[in-house]
Amino acid sequence: MCGIVGYIGARDAYPILIKGLKRLEYRGYDSAGLALVTNSDQLAVYKTKGKVADLEHYVLDKDITGSMGIAHTRWATHGEPSDANAHPHYSQSGHLALIHNGIIENYPVLKENLVQNGYTFRSNTDTEVLVQLIEYIMFTHGIDLFHAVQLSLTQVVGAYAIAVIERNNPNAIVAARKSSPLVIGIGEGEYFLGSDASPIIEYTKKVVYVNDDEVVCLRRDREPQFYNLNRVEKSHRIIELEMTLSQLEKGGYPHFMLKEIFEQPHTIRECMRGRVNVEHNSITLSGIIDNRERFLKARRIIIVACGTSWHAGLIGKYLIESFARVPVEVEYASEFRYRNPVLYDDDIVVAISQSGETADTLAAVELARSRNVFVYGVCNVVGSSIPRRTHSGSYTHAGPEIGVASTKAFTAQVTVLALMALCMARERKTLPQPEFEHLVAGLAAIPAKMEETLQVSDFIKKFSCIFTYAHNFIYLGRGYNFPVALEGALKLKEISYIHAEGYPAAEMKHGPIALIDQEMPVVVVAPNNKSMYEKVVSNIHEIKARKGRVVAIITRGDTVIKEMADYFIEIPPAEECFVPLLAVIPLQLMAYHIAIVKDRNVDQPRNLAKSVTVE
Ligand code: M6R
Questions:
Q1: Please, are residues 491 and 442 in contact by the beta-carbon 8 Å criterion?
Q2: Is the C-beta atom of 9 inside 6 A of ligand 1?
Q3: Strand pairing class (347-353; 374-379)
Q4: Which of 265, 380, 550, 572 is deepest in the core (most CB within 10 A)?
């Protein structure tokens, strides 16, 4: 939640900051603001409720000169979206400006102390307390900004990535991190900072991921300095980014979400590259091979995740239990972290997260670590917090996902889980060789089948407009496709704001069937796979008997459900366990096209943010 960006160097800071904010807008879009030390040595703070485009409009007649500045795009936690609550916040004297991503938990106590010392507050945010505290400590201790930030943060409880600038010192930005992401870009005589690398990649590929409890000073004329809160200098590792600028652009698509849906054949190929070898019938997942003994002896696997990643985890449970015969539990990270779970030394916790920054998932990782349990990460964003706190793991290699509604990250997560299941099955000898080989070939064939599946987009676009009248949808699926139904419903909810529920198809009779009438669209994931087909046909009969309108996702060539359904979308045949990778695509496209007809902002749906770094 919230995106921060900063620049110090020889160029004009404003264009860099605005472009950076646009790249980070997926993290929050309630309000935006920036602070510059202008060429006339003023500390100019401009901020407004609304999006980055509103901020651009707001500064049209303002002084935006200066080669150093910080900027912020907000997802509101404390205090409603408003001009006053927008960042940057500035200190009582007007000498300091600060941006913050995270939550200051003990802000009431800190604020009370500051009020007693004559400070007044302009906003309802937790953040403002930080900038006032830093100024108070600078004045009372007679120390510089860098030192004052270190000292102030020893009093702070909570999560933060901050950047502070000072009117009287246009040569330094001080930044710090605890539990919220912060990346420093190292240019030639210039430095950048961001919540992720997306605002930086255009200027330099050299970055440093700041560690928890580190404070960084970026000065024009010297190397960056990294210190911990006890004023001990820390070494830092410069990493070369693999991301490219084109991955952050829409590439001719009207929305990132549509681009990301269409990227899936490519991302799944990337995800399997170097891991799947059909000729040799092999799956190589180094995270599992390197920890072979642990995976051989695992008593249980506990998957922790949130949202779409949790849905991927459910499919992972089916895959791992079926192939590798290890019991798997799938937990919401937010529940797991607070319920004192029973954990054994030989358990493995698998944390799934696109962003690698989700606060609840990160806390679940810490809980498992604190109980000496081996933690394996399945993450997309390289260098993010979760992969840095897990013992081992596999990246999903889906590339940057900008649309707030997760699409390509989901299929990449399911693919990694399928690879894990197969790799474990191989090591544990739980699958007969012919079946293993058949599955490896089946998985390798999925990207080409995804390409075929994507051809239904125009058809879905045409019939989606029929459903914009609906206020509710039901999604049904069985077995491997039950989580697909959940995911389809989530996609529709989050971008079209239509209420939707996903259920295991057989559960319908236990309550949801009461909702079905001629107004209710029911999306049924009904591929022609042996184990469930007849049962799903019966469920469709039950819906039709109550006049529900059925949209069926069927296997190409199926004639039975074709006859029964009001609308049908065909997907290519595939092994039952890999059907979710195909069946989810029409559901993503349906959500997208319905949202477009309803004129929703699909890439930045209301109230949401891409990475949820608060609980
Ligand atoms: O980055 P993560 O995968 O940890 O994020 C988890 C959820 O916040 C995320 O999947 C969310 O549900 C998406 N908006 C769904 O499209």
A1: no
A2: no
A3: parallel
A4: 380
| Tally: H helices and E strands in the chain | 21, 26
Neighbours of 535 (CB within 10 A): 13
Closest by CA to 308, choosing from 8, 39, 608, is 608
Tell me the per-residue pLDDT of 3-26, one tens digit each, with 9 for 90 and over: 999 999 999 999 999 999 999 988
Active-site pick, 49, 178, 491, 610: 610
Q: For the chain, what is the largest distance between any 2 Cα atoms, rounded to a whole number of angstroms?
A: 81
Q: How many whole angstroms from 77 Cα to the centroid of ligand 1?
A: 18
Distance from the alpha carbon of residue 308 to the mean position of ligand 1, in angstroms? 5
Tokens standing for residue 68: 């150093």
Q: What is the mean pLDDT of residues 433-450?
A: 96
Burial state string for 333-371 with b = 16 or more CB within 10 A and e = fewer than 16: bbebbeeebebeeebbbbbbbbbbbbbbbbbbbebbeee
Q: Is 128 in the pocket of ligand 1 (CB under 6 A)?
A: no
pLDDT of residue 561 exceeding 90, the answer is yes
| Residue 106 contacts residue 55 (beta carbons within 8 Å) | no
> Would the CB of 406 count as within 6 Å of ligand 1?
yes
* Mean pLDDT (the chain, rounded): 94
Whose CA is closest to 552, among 536, 572, 568? Answer: 568
The residue whose CA has the least distance to atom 11 of ligand 1 is 307
Task: Tell whether ligand 1 has an atom less than 6 A from the beta carbon of residue 405.
Answer: yes
How do residues 294-335 score in pLDDT, each as one tens digit?
Answer: 999 999 999 999 999 999 999 999 999 999 999 999 999 999
